[in-house]
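Example record

The entry below shows one chain as it appears in the dataset: sequence first, then structure tokens.
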Amino acid sequence: KRVPEEIVSPLRLSELPARPNFMEEKQLTGADRGTLVHRALSLIPLQTLRGAESLPRAVHQAVHELVERGVFSGEELMALNLRGVAGFYESELGQRLLRSDLVRREWSFNLLMDDRRGTLLQGVIDCVFMEADGWVLVDYKTDRIIDEEAFCERYRMQLNWYGRALERITGKPVKEMWLYAIRKGKAYIVERTDT
């Protein structure tokens, strides 16, 4: 016997997806954009920036070379705040970094801080550079800043822990700690505390 065919109503256009899933563009979050900025700041060869006539042009060229090598995708390049990255290297703090002979970027560490309790401090220092009288610690931030004082206070403890860890690991003093706000293009010094 034949089974009667089921009558199915056709889909309305409003029920059809605009594009298949594989064609949908992924929207980058703020955290994704921040990660891109950190990657660019850690991977741009400093030697190409030292003595460059135009830092924005040198940053642009360096990042495009990273795209050609497959480090960044074209979509990531479009989302990357190149102006903010170049702005850091043009700033007084960025210029000091470029003059330093010893720069460490994305420096991860594990450090046993308290033998009795077994307190382990783990972290990744965005950037440190050496000057004649000690380390300069820099942490890049891509936050939207409304209250500058609250912004600095929010990260003070983190920078203090990183500063202590850096001194214990290297045996050299940390003379300055900075937050650099990429979106605002401004550096904020963070005072040491003894917490």
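Notes for this example: Helices lie at 30-43, 46-49, 55-68, 74-79, 82-90, 92-99, 148-170. The beta strands are 103-114, 119-131, 134-141, 174-181, 186-189.
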